[in-house]
Design a protein that fits this description.
The chain contains eleven helices and ten strands. By secondary structure, it is of the alpha/beta class. A ten-stranded mixed beta sheet has the order 3-2-1-4-5-10-9-6-7-8, sandwiched between helices. Helix 3 packs across helix 5, helix 5 crosses helix 10 and helix 9 packs parallel to helix 11. It starts with 5 loop residues before the first strand and ends with a strand.
Length: 284
């Protein structure tokens, strides 16, 4: 235990964010962690000269204060200790900066439901936090629960996925869990016709990645199953998560940051948007 000493939970007062907060209480008990809860007031873009400044600022801050009041009420009910912070500014910047200045190890955020519009909304604050932070991030969909008994971890053989595998092994070992290790070959169909030998080589490498990970896991006494899929990466990951009824998906972040990360899009963000369970994004 003790992988994460300080948790930062971002709330906006929604049922989704309060649910993520309640799940963080259980993690904090198991990990012996401290919890800071932040809500962020977006910057005001109107003309303060045209209206009463005091009324405007009070109105702007009210959703933040209401969100933190809900968080404190949830903490009292669950007998959890939290520290609350109301920040003003660009939400993703404030969340990322607060995590760094408070030496938080893990950022926890909620995710809305699985309807098309709700999946699309994931792309705003959460995507930017993932893109800019150097901390691990745990995203918890509404109506799902954090567990470590049945974990799915994806690997592409990179140093980023190795960090995810090490974290998955650590959690599985601590909580008596099992591992599902997956590698996905995600190339266009025409690629197979034009260069079949290259596709075969990718499949061979993918099998090597999952075998290497299995040896590491089994050396720690963890029951492990391995899978190789030829599919769109995020679809293969979320489909296997549903089929195996996993508790949590663990992914490595490829370390791209800032604008480049946002412009390139991300398998990780698509997995989060479609996952049937919490997703832990591990930073190397």
């Amino acid at each position: 235990m003790g992988r994460y000493r300080k948790l930062l939970v971002a709330v906006d007062g929604s049922e989704t964010s309060i649910h993520a907060l309640k799940e963080s209480f259980k993690l904090a008990v198991n990990e012996g962690s401290w919890i800071t809860v932040v809500s962020v007031v977006p910057p005001y873009t109107g003309d303060l000269d045209l209206t009463g400044v005091r009324d405007v600022m009070a109105s702007i801050r009210k959703p933040c204060e209401d969100a933190l009041s809900k968080a404190e009420e949830a903490a009292r009910t669950e007998k959890a200790l939290i520290k609350t912070v109301c920040e003003e500014g660009e939400p993703y910047e404030k969340i990322v900066n607060l995590a760094e200045t408070n030496n938080c190890d893990l950022i926890i955020m909620g995710r809305r439901g699985l309807r098309r519009l709700e999946r699309a909304l994931m792309g705003s604050v959460t995507a930017r936090v993932i893109g800019y932070t150097r901390n691990d991030i745990l995203v918890i969909p509404r109506d799902t629960f954090v567990g470590w008994q049945n974990i799915l971890v994806a690997t592409d053989g990179s140093k980023y996925s190795r960090a995810a595998i090490e974290k998955a092994i650590d959690f599985a070992k601590s909580y008596g869990g099992e591992l599902n290790i997956l590698s996905v070959i995600d190339v266009p169909a025409e690629f197979y016709a034009e260069a079949p030998e290259v596709a075969d080589d990718l499949i061979r490498k993918a099998k090597g990645y999952v075998e290497e990970a299995r040896k590491l896991a089994e050396a720690s006494g963890i029951k492990t199953a391995i899978f190789v899929r030829e599919d769109v990466a995020y679809e293969a990951i979320t489909a296997l998560a549903k089929k195996q009824k996993v508790d949590t998906i663990i992914l490595g972040s490829h370390g791209r940051t800032g604008l480049k990360r946002l412009l390139m899009g991300s398998v990780t963000e698509k997995v989060i948007g479609h996952a049937p369970c919490p997703v832990l994004v591990v930073k190397p």
